[in-house]
Design a protein that fits this description.
Elements: H1 2-12, H2 17-36, H3 43-49, H4 52-145, H5 152-181, E1 191-194, H6 195-205, H7 207-213, E2 216-220, E3 227-230, H8 232-248, E4 255-263, E5 266-274, H9 280-287, H10 293-301, H11 307-317, E6 321-327, E7 331-341
Parallel strand pairs: 2-4
Antiparallel strand pairs: 1-3, 3-7, 4-5, 5-7, 6-7
Helix pairs in contact: 1-4, 2-4, 4-5, 4-8, 6-8, 8-11, 10-11
Length: 342
């Protein structure tokens, strides 16, 4: 009976193996003391005949069960911790890759603007250059028509100037060919667009990150178009930063819902994550790491774990607001607002 009780006890209670071993040793000591006080020569044989041997074997076996179970759980916990760390590293790498993509796109846009400026400047220079060479050619023709009044030395100087002017014309033609092949166009920072496709694309981009973290994504787009006048590149980066970091700090197996709608002349994007709360103290720390635009530029190029802060600063820089909350009533809640256009 006691053997069954100790076996059930050790099989159901989850604690360190040392506790089960100590209890079994204590029970052994009590049993030995009880049978040692008996005034019989065969007291230890009596102990064996009353099931002592069975009790010792079963209790020792139950301690082995506890020890093996503890080691299995310990390995599982260590494995899960390693998996979570690996998932977080993958999310960080994914964020870095997308950061570099946005940096490259922004740099490419700036290069196009610079190239267009160079193109326009080159056209102005070519226009002035052609006027200059044309004036020289006209003057030379005029002087050549009156060559009878010129000395041999003056005629030689005219020929020298003519050869130089031909070289200038050749150079201007080469520059003109280069300018004609340049197809640079001005790329404006701000443009009118519907946020629906952008939110949908950003959600598709973070699907792999959500799958890694085992977060169930649900997207609810407004049935009507919501137009805004924003920088599309940086708007997409705000969404990516906010979405990926919301997933990063979400509980595994939880649900994250993304809503878009228009309210009081504003475009509203809401992200709701129902699960373990991040906490307002933690969110305040994460969202308020950046104070200046210089810090924003530095963070976008290098710093990790700055996603929430970058998203907030970019949103405010473009004239929007980003608010957040973490409570039992709302869950982990994030809200972006921009002025909508009609």
């Amino acid at each position: 009976m006691f053997s069954i009780l100790i076996l059930l006890f050790n099989s159901t209670v989850f604690w360190k193996p040392i506790h089960s071993i100590l209890i079994c040793l204590l029970s052994y000591l009590i049993i030995v003391i009880i049978y040692s006080n008996k005034d019989r020569i065969d007291k230890y044989n009596l102990l064996i005949s009353h099931g002592g041997a069975v009790y010792f074997l079963v209790s020792a076996f139950s301690c082995m069960i506890v020890y093996n179970r503890y080691q299995i759980l310990k390995r599982e916990v260590a494995k899960n911790i390693m998996i979570d760390e690996a998932n977080n590293r993958l999310l960080d790498q994914n964020e870095k890759i997308n950061d570099q993509r946005y940096v490259i796109e922004d740099a490419n846009r700036k290069l196009k603007i610079l190239n267009d400026y160079r193109h326009n400047t080159l056209n102005i220079m070519l226009h002035d250059f052609r006027n200059f060479t044309g004036s020289i050619e006209m003057s030379l023709d005029l002087l050549k028509n009156k060559s009878d009044n010129l000395s041999g030395e003056q005629k030689e100087i005219l020929n020298y100037i003519g050869v130089g002017n031909e070289k200038l014309k050749y150079l201007s033609e080469k520059l003109a060919d280069s300018a004609d092949k340049d197809e640079a166009k001005v790329q404006f920072n701000y443009e009118y667009f519907d946020i629906g496709p952008e939110v949908e694309n950003s959600t598709i981009e973070i699907a792999d990150a959500a799958q890694i973290k085992q977060v169930n994504l649900q997207l609810h787009l407004s049935p009507s178009a919501i137009m805004v006048h924003l920088d599309k590149l940086f708007f997409a980066q705000v969404l990516f930063k906010l979405f990926t970091n919301a997933i990063k700090y979400a509980q595994s197996g939880s649900v994250m819902t993304i809503h878009t709608h228009e309210m009081n002349g504003k475009c509203v994007i809401e992200i709701v994550n129902i699960g373990k709360l991040v906490g307002m103290d933690k969110l305040n720390e994460l969202f308020n790491k950046l104070k200046t635009s210089k810090q924003l530029a530095e963070a976008m190029n290098s710093e990790t774990n700055m996603g929430f802060a970058i998203a907030k600063k970019l949103t405010e820089t473009m004239g929007g607001t980003l608010t957040y909350n973490s409570s039992e009533g709302t869950g982990n809640y994030y809200r972006i607002e921009f002025k909508s256009t009609h």
